[in-house]
């Protein structure tokens, strides 16, 4: 499923079956800082991301928070 063509300088150029060129080498592995968590937080702030305790959790905390359309569909599936 891969193709190889020689460049004008004689070096091979690899591509996938659609013709999309593959990189000459894999990207280097990232070097982690001594405190990768703080580094991640700093990069997030630099890019405007402000994750907090709500970021990775559901916003539905009480039964009244769940939209009726979602609850109705769940009831249909569970109750058959």
Question: Tags for this entry?
Answer:
80 residues; 29% helix; 2 helices; alpha+beta; flat; two-stranded antiparallel sheet; single chain
Give your account of this protein's structure:
- The structure is a single chain.
- The chain is an alpha+beta fold and 80 residues long.
- Helices cover 29% and strands 10% of the residues.
- The chain has 2 helices and 2 strands.
- A two-stranded antiparallel sheet has the order 1-2.
- A hairpin with a 5-residue loop joins β1 and β2.
- The longest helix has 12 residues.
- It is flat.
Please describe the topology of this protein.
Elements lengths: L2 E4 L5 E4 L20 H11 L21 H12 L1
Antiparallel strand pairs: 1-2
Proportion of residues in helical segments: 25-40%
Please, what is the average pLDDT? 81
Q: How do the strands line up in the largest sheet?
A: 1-2
Give the amount of beta strand, in percent.
5-15%
**Biggest sheet overview:** 2 strands, antiparallel
Give the N-to-C terminal Cα separation: 46 Å
The shape is flat
Number of strands: 2
User: Are there runs of 5+ residues with pLDDT below 50, and where?
Assistant: none
Order of helices and strands: EEHH
Number of helices: 2
Question: What structural category do the secondary elements indicate?
Answer: alpha+beta
> Any idea what the radius of gyration is?
25 Å
Summarize the structure.
Helix content is 29%, strand content 10%. By secondary structure, it is α+β, with helices and mostly antiparallel strands.
């Amino acid at each position: 499923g891969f193709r190889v063509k020689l460049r004008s300088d004689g070096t091979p150029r690899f591509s996938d079956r659609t013709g999309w060129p593959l990189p000459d080498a894999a990207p280097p592995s990232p070097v982690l800082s001594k405190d990768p968590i703080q580094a991640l937080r700093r990069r997030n702030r630099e890019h405007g991301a402000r994750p907090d305790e709500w970021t990775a959790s559901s916003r539905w905390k009480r039964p009244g928070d769940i939209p009726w359309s979602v609850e109705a569909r769940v009831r249909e599936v569970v109750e058959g």
